[in-house]
Design goal:
- The protein is α+β, with helices and mostly antiparallel strands and about 150 residues long.
- It has one domain: 2-Layer Sandwich (Alpha-Beta Plaits), CATH 3.30.70.640.
- The protein is about 25% helix and about 35% strand.
- It has a 4-stranded antiparallel beta sheet with strand order 5-6-1-7, covered by helices on one side. The protein has a 3-stranded antiparallel beta sheet with strand order 2-3-4.
- The chain is elongated and about 55 Å long.
Length: about 150
């Protein structure tokens, strides 16, 4: 692990995103903002799975510091390209950032969408898992006005 004992505690925010392309066989089951899959409501379940994953990040990634997350929000929306766009926003007051928690949350939510829809099609593609923005550490990154406003920083 990196020694953070000399760092100052500050409010840290990170936003990560994953995109999941959904073929027609999956999109045909989209109604009321969620997919009714054979295993149940896909997006609702993915949000829960992603949130749980954020909390377990240091158990999954060996050198991540264990953090007491103060907030974790995951949203999923389908865009015009038949993609489920998953965004995970994490917040903590600590000496190190929460980028890995946000990335883990978005990734596990995407994997959950795949798992819950694979009975409908195996042509699902998970892509573009990336950090969108981070604030509050040594350097800020990103210009994400859709999920993080100036009052959030």
């Amino acid at each position: 692990m990196v020694d953070v004992s000399g760092k100052t505690v500050s409010r840290r925010i990170a936003v990560a995103q994953a995109r999941v392309w959904l073929p027609g066989a999956v999109m045909a089951n989209l109604a009321d903002g969620d997919i009714a899959g054979p295993k149940g409501p896909v997006f609702q379940t993915a949000i829960i799975a992603g949130t749980m994953a954020c909390k377990k990040t240091p158990e999954l990634i060996p050198f991540c510091h264990p953090l007491q997350l103060e907030d974790c929000k995951i949203t999923i929306a389908v865009n015009g390209a038949d993609e489920a766009v998953i965004q995970c926003r994490t917040v903590v007051h600590y000496k190190t950032g929460v980028e890995m928690e946000a990335l883990t949350g978005a990734t596990v939510a995407a994997l959950t969408v795949y798992d819950m829809c694979k009975a409908l099609s195996h042509d699902i593609v998970i892509r573009d898992i990336r950090l969108v923005a981070k604030y509050g550490g040594k350097s800020d990154f990103g210009d994400d006005t859709t999920t993080t406003t100036a009052t959030d920083v």
